[in-house]
């Protein structure tokens, strides 16, 4: 089964709140979410072209693991925590399945197992 990714896109419009948001996400939310979800790995990004755009990406072994994380009680708690601490920060959530991984140095495409 191919790996699956959960992507949370948040827009922090007030530049004065970005440092606090960044610290909260780094020290509280990302570690809690990654552990609660059972994610294999997690990343955070600030856009280099749109300074208000923040992405958090969580990696799962497969779609079934992602589905379990998205339907569990921890998801409800994490959403509530975010809404409590950052009510003015809109966000979207998306799920992706890995289709292809290309490694230029190897000159090869690694297709995930079906």
CATH-level-2 architecture: 2-Layer Sandwich
How many discrete structural domains?
1
Biggest β-sheet strands, sense, barrel: 4 strands, antiparallel
Within the CATH hierarchy, at the fold level, what is the topology? Alpha-Beta Plaits
State the order of secondary-structure elements, H for helix, E for strand.
EHEEHHEEE
Q: At the first level of CATH, what is the class?
A: Alpha Beta
Shape: globular
Give the termini distance in whole angstroms.
5 Å
Reconstruct the topology from this structure:
Blueprint: E1 4-11, H1 18-37, E2 41-46, E3 53-60, H2 63-71, H3 73-85, E4 91-97, E5 101-103, E6 108-110
Helix pairs in contact: 1-3
Please name the defining characteristics of this protein.
114 residues, alpha+beta, 4-stranded antiparallel β-sheet, two-stranded antiparallel ribbon, globular
What does this structure look like?
The protein is α+β, with helices and mostly antiparallel strands. It has a single domain (4-110), classed as Alpha-Beta Plaits (2-Layer Sandwich), CATH 3.30.70. The protein has 3 helices and 6 strands. It has a 4-stranded antiparallel sheet. β5 (101-103) and β6 form a beta hairpin. α1 runs antiparallel to α3. The chain starts with a strand and ends with a strand. The relative contact order is 0.28.
Give a brief description.
Helices cover 37% and strands 31% of the residues. It has three helices and six strands, in the order βαββααβββ.
């Amino acid at each position: 089964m191919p790996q699956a990714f959960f992507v949370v896109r948040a827009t922090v419009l007030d530049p004065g709140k970005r440092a606090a948001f960044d610290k909260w996400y780094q020290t509280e939310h990302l570690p809690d979410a990654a552990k609660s979800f059972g994610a294999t790995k997690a990343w955070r990004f600030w856009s280099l072209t749109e300074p208000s755009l923040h992405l958090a990406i969580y990696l799962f072994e497969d779609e079934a693991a992602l589905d379990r994380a998205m339907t569990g009680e921890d998801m409800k708690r994490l959403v509530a925590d975010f809404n409590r601490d950052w009510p003015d920060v809109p966000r979207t959530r998306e799920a992706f399945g890995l289709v292809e991984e290309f490694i230029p140095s190897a000159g090869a495409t690694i297709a995930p197992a079906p």
